[in-house]
Amino acid sequence: MGLQGKVALVTGGGRGIGLAIAKALAADGAAVALAARTREQLEDAAAQLRRGGARCLAHATDVSVPEEIDALFARVRAELGPVQVLVNNAGVNGAIGELATCDLGEWRRAIEVNLLGTVFATRAAIPFMRQQGGGKIVNLAGGGIGGPSVATRVSAYVSSKAAVVQFTEAIARELAEHNIQVNAVSPGAVVTEMTAGVIAAGPQKAGRELYQRTLQQRESGGEPPELAARLVVWLASERSGALTGKLLSAKWDDVARLDLESANRSSLYTLRRIDQVMFKEVPKP
Known about the structure:
Strand content: 5-15%
Shape: globular
Structural class: alpha/beta
Mean pLDDT: 90
CATH superfamily: NAD(P)-binding Rossmann-like Domain
CATH class: Alpha Beta
Number of domains: 1
Order of helices and strands: EHEHEHEHEHEHHHEH
Number of strands: 7
CATH topology: Rossmann fold
Strand order of the largest sheet: 3-2-1-4-5-6-7
Radius of gyration: 18 Å
CATH architecture: 3-Layer(aba) Sandwich
Largest sheet: 7 strands, parallel
Distance between the termini: 46 Å
């Protein structure tokens, strides 16, 4: 019960990965606030947590609207207490299809929800965390960022999630002096309603490669969301110490073997992953 007495807020907490994270935080002792756009899903999720004995509230929120974020934080403070753990999980696919023909409004929406929603909630959390002498922020990156297997025809989604990781690194340095740790989690190939969106788009729109890969993911069951939930709880607790500005894989990174101090000094677990200064690399001896 490492989070006993803590107040955690999970955006996109009404289903899928967000709900799994909320349950794991509650099981570790936290009071949990859930935010998402769909009120019915939120109320059902909150009822599940309350049946398990957790203090919980649900608040319908569009994370892309700063005023709604402010109202959310105000209600959480009034009913549960100031937010000490923030999990930015809310996300959308955005436009699916070739950039030349896709809906630019949907492309923009991915940036508004995935990136700006993370920015707005983080900004709202900072005053509360500073007043309390610290806090933990965990941002959800995509199933995989970069590399040769990056998906095509979902450029809005992958771009927004890569931006979330760079935002994580930048804001972690900014908030380090206030004892606020900010990290990102790659949950792996979890089957969610976003997976269903790719399948619904079909091979002509999503592209045959992504479509077939997503079908296989659904048929295999994908990665369990509990992997990401366990990693989020570890990052939200004091067990992660002062680790900050890192991107960790729920599937591949064994945090039990992680040297927190050396990881903080290194470019490992970042987008760069090369341990030298910007624009100047030193050859290996």
